[in-house]
Design goal:
This protein has 325 residues and is an alpha/beta fold. The protein has helices at residues 5-11, 51-66, 91-95, 115-129, 145-155, 170-180, 191-194, 201-204, 221-231, 244-256, 295-300, 305-324, and strands spanning 13-23, 26-36, 39-43, 76-78, 81-83, 103-107, 134-138, 160-164, 187-189, 210-214, 235-238, 285-287. Helix 6 links the parallel strand 8 (160-164) and strand 9 (187-189). Helix 2 crosses helix 12 (305-324) and helix 5 (145-155) packs parallel to helix 6 (170-180). The longest helix has 20 residues, at 305-324.
Length: 325
Amino acid sequence: MIPPLAELLDSARVVSLPMHTRFRGVDTREALLFEGPQGWAEFSPFIEYGDAEAATWLAAAIDFAWNAQPEPLRERIPVNATVPAIAAAQVPDLLARFAGCRTAKVKVAEPGQTLADDVDRVRAVREAMGPEGRIRIDANGAWNVDEAEHAVHALTEFDLEYVEQPCATVLELAELRTRVKYMGIPVAADESIRKSSDPLAVARERAADLLVIKAQPLGGITHALQIITAAGLPVVVSSALDTAIGLSQGAALAAALPTLDYDCGLGTASLFIDDVADRRPVDGAIPSGRVTPDAAALTRLAAEDDRRDWWLDRLARCHAELGAR
């Protein structure tokens, strides 16, 4: 059931969260929040996404706000630190914001940077975390197969937990997986799941060892769980640079999994200077319960009028898109 647009607009609040470090090309993260019978939810597809793709994110928000979710199997969700494509010298200060996290995901293959920059950044993370820390890298599909193989070789000395979306296509992932398998470095798929019309192709083609699953882009927790079950691969539950509200949806997904083999990418609240509620990691974990935004924070972080109007218009278009499906 899709609630009337008026019900979404009645509680809709558009916020703009300032970030400590530029990430994904943005200095602030915008999101639209609304409240339903089950609590608050977040609608925050990235600005560049078209309405057809963004409507799936709206479906996830409606599902979280209007429908009961699976019973949690755990109260705390272990999370990883996220290291943007920063200079190596900035790494220790950034990691200090992720209290108690034993795992770090490091962004690599940033446009305008080189593999040497990636090596320096990953080395700095390893030095800061020590030999017991876990390091995973994320290329967001920026390498071709040869570039990815070369990069994995260059970074293997840092004992990588896995490499996330090193190449753009499923076939490229499958080929790379065969090339690096002897090194014992797993390949994870993210964009090949959340931006694909066939998210099970990765499992069918044996293109990845594990899946990175995000609730919002997949239309909500129920659909994400269906994909996880059908794929039959280990998963890492992650966020799409969500506010504390969206992070609570990701935590609810992680809490519903029978097993949780990897630290989750749900610690990204530490990348924000301010948020609508506090979901920064404590002792390397976040709670699995729902979040209610702080009224003062909603006022303090309210987007400018033109940005609020842009998001409300987007909400209306995506609501119409859902209704037409």
